[in-house]
């Protein structure tokens, strides 16, 4: 009987020693450094746990002693709730940190920036250069993308003017790998729709605008005329006053837009005399579509323009504009600007 208890004691001692050794081994194992590049991504499929995760780590050559991973996952089942996704290994140092990341479901995030005042042609380049974004629109025309986004286009000759400029919301958009370019544009289009509806529904009374589309067109002109947010409501007032007075808008950004690739950096007299649907020196009222992507600031400026008696404005040389009430005042402001410009050019 005495020998039995001695044997049992020895067995328990060996068992406890083995358990303690195993505990130490796994504790040390989870603190081992992984071998990953700062920009490395790890693609984890649905249902990846245990053997599949071990095989994935071995394939990516992330850790040594990979045979210990299944034991660690059994020892710490809370680390075995792996979520499918694409994970960035940037900043991940240890096996434990890696497993915590894969259990969190916090996938890698990338972003693409869409800037106000730009055109969809410029935005498309940003989409094409966005990393880890599925490019599903590369072979599609702007008109086809317009249809895919279900843009509410209130304009005559819709087939001629399926134009995405103005109909997408400028912002920085975050996305996870394998998101599609169409999904990003759908998010942008939906945000613009909400911002436009809000501006239209809360607009001042008696604006000379027939529908939200016209508000968006005018906002795009305000966007291009000034980059100073505090000045936009005053710029909007000039165009509102002109529309009310049945005056031509006579705004250079629309002329430039209508020139397309023919614009080489300056507007000549013959350009102002060349008819296009966007030449507001010739046409009455607004052009048929927006001419650029619109910020919410420009939308709100058109929805709530300042109450002024200004009909003209010109650059003042300081980044802003000089606003005037009549042609005589405007001509003087133009001369003042030209005098400033020449003095700067001559270095005086």
Structural class: mainly alpha
Strand order of the main beta sheet, please? 1-2
Euclidean distance between termini CA atoms: 112 Å
Main pleated-sheet profile: 2 strands, antiparallel
GO molecular function: lytic endotransglycosylase activity
Protein name: Endolytic murein transglycosylase
Family: Belongs to the transglycosylase MltG family.
GO cellular component, one term: plasma membrane
Describe this protein's structure.
Functions as a peptidoglycan terminase that cleaves nascent peptidoglycan strands endolytically to terminate their elongation. The record marks 225 as: Important for catalytic activity. Belongs to the transglycosylase MltG family. Keywords: Cell cycle, Cell division, Cell inner membrane, Cell membrane, Cell wall biogenesis/degradation, Lyase, Membrane, Transmembrane, Transmembrane helix. It comes from Rodentibacter genomosp. 1. The chain is mainly alpha-helical and 348 residues long. The protein has three domains: 29-104, Dna Ligase, domain 1 (2-Layer Sandwich), CATH 3.30.1490; 113-310, no CATH class; 311-347, Classic Zinc Finger (Double Stranded RNA Binding Domain, 2-Layer Sandwich), CATH 3.30.160. The chain contains 13 helices and six strands. The strands form three sheets. It has a two-stranded antiparallel sheet. Strands 3-4 form a two-stranded antiparallel ribbon. A two-stranded antiparallel ribbon has the order 5-6. Strand 5 and strand 6 (321-324) form a beta hairpin. The longest helix has 29 residues, at 2-30. The protein is elongated, with a radius of gyration of 32 Å. Mean pLDDT is 88; it is low at 11-21.
């Amino acid at each position: 009987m005495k020998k039995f208890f001695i044997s049992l004691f020895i067995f328990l001692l060996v068992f406890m020693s083995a358990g303690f050794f195993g505990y130490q081994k796994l504790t040390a194992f989870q603190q081992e450094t992984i071998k990953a590049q700062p920009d490395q991504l790890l693609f984890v499929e649905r249902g990846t746990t245990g053997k599949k995760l071990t095989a994935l780590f071995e394939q990516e050559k992330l850790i040594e002693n990979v045979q210990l991973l299944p034991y660690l996952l059994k020892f710490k089942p809370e680390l075995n709730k792996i979520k499918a996704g694409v994970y960035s290994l940037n900043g991940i140092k240890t096996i434990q940190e890696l497993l915590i990341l894969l259990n969190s479901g916090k996938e890698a995030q990338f972003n693409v920036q869409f800037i106000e005042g730009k055109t969809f042609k410029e935005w498309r380049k940003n989409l094409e250069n966005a990393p880890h974004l599925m490019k599903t629109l590369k072979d599609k025309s702007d008109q086809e993308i317009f249809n895919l986004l279900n843009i509410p286009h209130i304009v005559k000759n819709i087939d001629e003017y399926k134009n995405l400029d103005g109909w997408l919301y400028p912002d920085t958009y975050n996305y996870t790998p394998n998101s599609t370019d169409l999904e990003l544009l759908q998010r942008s289009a939906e945000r613009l729709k909400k911002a436009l509806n809000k501006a239209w529904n809360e607009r001042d009374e008696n604006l000379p605008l027939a529908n939200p589309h016209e508000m968006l067109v005018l906002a795009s002109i305000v966007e291009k005329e000034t980059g100073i947010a505090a000045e936009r409501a005053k710029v909007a007032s000039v165009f509102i006053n002109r529309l009310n007075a049945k005056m031509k808008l006579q705004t250079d950004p629309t002329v430039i837009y209508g020139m397309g690739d023919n614009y080489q950096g300056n507007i000549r007299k013959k350009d102002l005399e060349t008819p296009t649907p966007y030449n507001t020196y010739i046409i009455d009222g607004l052009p048929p579509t927006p001419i650029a992507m619109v910020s919410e600031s420009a939308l709100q400026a058109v929805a709530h323009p300042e109450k002024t008696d200004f009909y003209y404005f010109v650059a003042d040389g300081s980044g802003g504009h000089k606003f005037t009430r009549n042609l005589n005042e405007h001509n003087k402001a133009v001369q003042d600007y030209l005098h400033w410009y020449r003095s700067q050019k001559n270095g005086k």
